[in-house]
Amino acid sequence: MEDYPRWRDGLTDQLFKAILLLKNEKECYSFFEDLATINEIKEFSQRLEVARMLSEGSTYEEIAHKTGASSATISRVKRCLNYGADGYKLILGRLFGKKK
């Protein structure tokens, strides 16, 4: 596995460097409100919650009921948890102190 994804480029590097410069939640809200639509931000939030619930063993039905996520979204997140770049696992461990 390579260190960086194939889709990495200068503009993406610039975006991620900008995100890393944010200092608190207020700055994150301001930047992301300008950067993305509210729906896009809500979709990212939903996917993170789906990942958290999957890592805790919740069923698709429980996840769909709580988050409103479609089975396709839940399946995609599960695939990332199982075969992805471990980004969800990294952040879930940091947010909730879990290594699932």
Q: Brief description of this entry?
A:
This protein is mainly α and 100 residues long. It is built from six helices and no strands. Helix 3 crosses helix 5.
Strand content: under 5%
Per DSSP, the total helix count is 6
What form results from the Cα inertia axes?
globular
Measure the end-to-end span.
21 Å
CATH second-level architecture: Orthogonal Bundle
What level of helicity do the residues show? over 70%
The biggest beta sheet is recorded as: none
Instruction: Please compute the radius of gyration using only Cα atoms.
Output: 15 Å
What is the class in the CATH system? Mainly Alpha
Q: Structural class of the secondary structure composition?
A: mainly alpha
